[in-house]
Amino acid sequence: MTNYLDTLTHRGWVKFDDVFSTQLVDEILDEYLTNEHHFVNIQNQKGIAHLVENATHHSFVICRKMLTLLENPILGKFLTEYFNGAYILNTMGVSRITKVNKTYTQNIHRDIRSFSGSNKLWLNAIILLSDSTEENGATWMLEGSQNFPNKPKEKEFFDNAIRATGKKGDVIFFDGNMWHAAGKNLTETDRYIITPFFQNLTSNNN
Ligand SMILES: O=C(O)CCC(=O)C(=O)O
User: Which is an annotated Pfam family here (predicted)?
Assistant: First the structure.
């Protein structure tokens, strides 16, 4: 795992190839699409549906098959080594990038509420439920920006960010401080990911 941890430290992100089978990923997406309306109903009731279009949070509460993704021993070992011990799942949601509608994750952002510096407080994961390409919305990542307390300007971001492409079933981890954005989908086929976010149990045990 040392190589993966080193890559994560230096680049801010790292990818594990072929972690999940196409069959499992398809079953999980299928279960999600069958149940998505429950989440959208709640978003509508709360008056926030227009803010979170194409995204649902805590999706595993209804879509139980998603939880099997957390049982993967390789990912478990990596997370334990990264956090130097126990960790918790903070949230785990599904997002879709389409050609027609904007998803809020396409804005430059980071997911941690405040900059935590080199303290290993928060680690984001992206589980690819679709192949992820430059054409269909692969994540823009500004390598090194895990060390930036402040949001980079749009030009600085897009001039320097790289695309984290991958195949269905791959898993990408990136530092919670990293500035990133989902790309545009120029294709006719929607792109799906699951984003589990993990957190250290304490903020100072590294
Ligand atoms: O769709 C992506 O590649 C990025 C997802 C993202 O930025 C997020 O969930 O915070």
Answer: PhyH
